[in-house]
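User: Design a sequence. Structure:
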């Protein structure tokens, strides 16, 4: 019995590997450049779209390679302009991404995994479990599709990308870094890495690795409590990556990259919203070169019993941070009416 060789995803080939393929087929080297441009800059969805190649060459590529792409399964439109899209992978998994428009920015909130294994108590994705990691070309497709939505709906390209969707980016380290390389490459989407933020629940070893790799994008830590007891209660990852380990890792990251970090802190009613909690946050903020603390409104989910503090409690918390020279910003949630806000992504469509 003759074994047939499994087709390879053509986007998993580097440019030199494509050049070697075409050389083996007796084709000129520039063919690799043409195909590479179709795959990344022009975001071709099929080999048939590669119209500057001969029909025979397109057929040969179809016979030898796969070109799996992400497609938009459904989109929901919020009253505030936010668009949540559910994407379908080539193997029929679903994953969500969000376009958040403002007057100044067009921000894509993208996912790095299908589901999540970290089980944070306040996050809908954490109740799904993890199905698998997204490949770097799938993450790239998310960004490209959200960029198309930004241009179609608002006449503007994406200005910012945040890895704050489904999954823990640092548990899909290689694919996330490869996706960012392609997104920021001149022959990719050409976005500045300084406009890309990777948000982590706190994997100390991989934060240190980001520093060693001297990445140029920004880093945010989902903190949500400034003492270990409370943080472990809502984020089980804190049991193996406690605040001391994270502080050490963040300082290493800063030393290696010169990039200050951002803290994300969701306020939960009568859990982490007291002035004592604010004081603990001030003390932690002073231990790390941080440029900002994003104070985030809690967005309710069916699986959790948390609620949002009243406006006076939020005001007192923010005032305390301001009085103690913490650069804090209150981030009002967007897309709550379509379950597109922070912590609400769970492949649920109306």
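Assistant: Done.
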């Amino acid at each position: 019995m003759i074994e047939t060789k499994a087709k390879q995803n053509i986007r998993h080939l580097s440019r030199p590997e494509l050049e070697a393929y075409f050389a083996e087929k007796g084709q000129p080297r520039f063919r690799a450049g043409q195909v590479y441009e179709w795959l990344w800059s022009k975001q071709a969805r099929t080999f048939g779209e590669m119209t500057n190649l001969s029909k025979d060459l397109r057929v040969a590529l179809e016979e030898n390679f796969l070109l799996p792409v992400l497609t938009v399964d459904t989109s929901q439109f919020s009253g505030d302009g936010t668009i949540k899209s559910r994407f379908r992978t080539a193997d029929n998994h679903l994953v969500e991404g969000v376009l958040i428009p403002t007057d100044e920015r067009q921000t894509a909130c993208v996912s790095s995994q299908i589901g999540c294994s970290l089980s944070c108590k306040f996050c809908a994705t954490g109740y799904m479990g993890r199905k698998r990691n997204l490949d770097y070309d799938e993450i790239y497709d998310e960004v490209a599709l959200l960029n198309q939505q930004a241009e179609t709906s608002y006449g503007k390209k994406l200005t910012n990308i945040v890895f704050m969707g489904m999954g823990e980016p640092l548990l899909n380290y290689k694919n996330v870094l490869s996706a960012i390389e392609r997104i920021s490459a001149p022959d990719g989407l050409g976005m500045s890495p300084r406009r890309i933020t990777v948000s982590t629940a706190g994997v100390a070893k991989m934060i240190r690795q980001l520093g060693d790799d001297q990445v140029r994008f920004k880093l945010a830590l989902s903190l949500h409590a400034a003492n270990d007891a409370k943080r472990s209660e809502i984020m089980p990852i804190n049991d193996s990556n406690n605040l001391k380990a994270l502080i050490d890792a963040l300082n290493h990251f800063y030393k290696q990259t010169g990039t200050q970090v951002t803290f994300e802190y969701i306020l939960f009613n009568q859990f982490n919203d007291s002035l004592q909690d604010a004081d603990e946050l001030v003390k932690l903020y002073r231990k790390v070169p941080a440029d900002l603390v994003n104070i985030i409104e809690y967005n309710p989910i069916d699986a959790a019993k948390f609620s949002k503090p009243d406006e006076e409690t939020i005001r007192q918390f923010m005032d305390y941070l301001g009085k103690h020279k913490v650069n804090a910003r209150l981030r009002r949630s967007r897309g709550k009416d379509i379950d597109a806000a922070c912590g609400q992504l769970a492949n649920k469509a109306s």
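The CA atoms of residues 193 and 217 lie 5 Å apart. The chain has two domains: 8-66, 71-338.
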